[in-house]
Amino acid sequence: MDRRFLAVATELLDEEGWSALSLDRIAERAGVSRATVWRAGITRTSVERLLRLRLVADYQELMGQTTGSGLDRLILALRALCEVAERNLPLLAHTDLAFHGPDLEAIGVEFDYFAPWLQILAQAAADGSLAPVDDPPRFIVALTDSLILTYVHLRAHHGDYGWDADRTADHLIDLLTHGFAPRPP
């Protein structure tokens, strides 16, 4: 896909939502004919597919960069998740199902969201930096949804009130790690 058209489509999505992703709107914004956009294969479906592929690639790249104790890795993973959200804000601001299986399976993506988090929790329990978690998948969903959904909302809808990327990540990570993460006995 032509990067120029993807950038235009992403801007339209960010500004106006999914309904803006039409051949006419993309062509108008790009300053080309509708036929040019059509010949390039730009559709809402193709744009959504590419944005989801980018989301998964960013997640896999950034989640693999955690080191240290289990607690250190958890904090770094939360920060990485904020970076994933920041890189993919236009998509995430318009769907809260971007990481969900059916939407990814529909575009042919096999994706294990839980693997890095399960490894982190196992290491944290083993090194004593966090208490063991009774139901890790439920904990991971609550923790990461609390972070990413709040992060996206604050960044997409309250940026004018000072919720820049760093402030938002710092605040939410502090809130979650001090008020939510299990502590050793």
Structure write-up:
- With 185 residues, the protein is mostly helical.
- Helices cover 68% and strands 0% of the residues.
- The chain is built from 10 helices and no strands.
- It has helices at 3-16, 23-30, 34-39, 44-63, 70-87, 89-92, 101-105, 115-127, 136-157, 165-179.
- Helix 4 (44-63) runs antiparallel to helix 5 and helix 5 packs across helix 9.
- The termini are far apart.
- The model has no long low-confidence stretch (mean pLDDT 90).
SSE inventory with pairings:
Elements (H helix, E strand, L loop, with lengths): L2 H14 L6 H8 L3 H6 L4 H20 L6 H18 L1 H4 L8 H5 L9 H13 L8 H22 L7 H15 L6
- Overall, the morphology is elongated
> What can be said about the biggest beta sheet?
none
Helical fraction equals 55-70%
Query: Which structural class do you get from the secondary structure elements?
Result: mainly alpha
Beta strands, count = 0
* Straight-line distance between termini: 53 Å
Order of helices and strands: HHHHHHHHHH
Radius of gyration: 19 Å
Unreliable residue stretches: none
Write down the overall mean pLDDT. 90
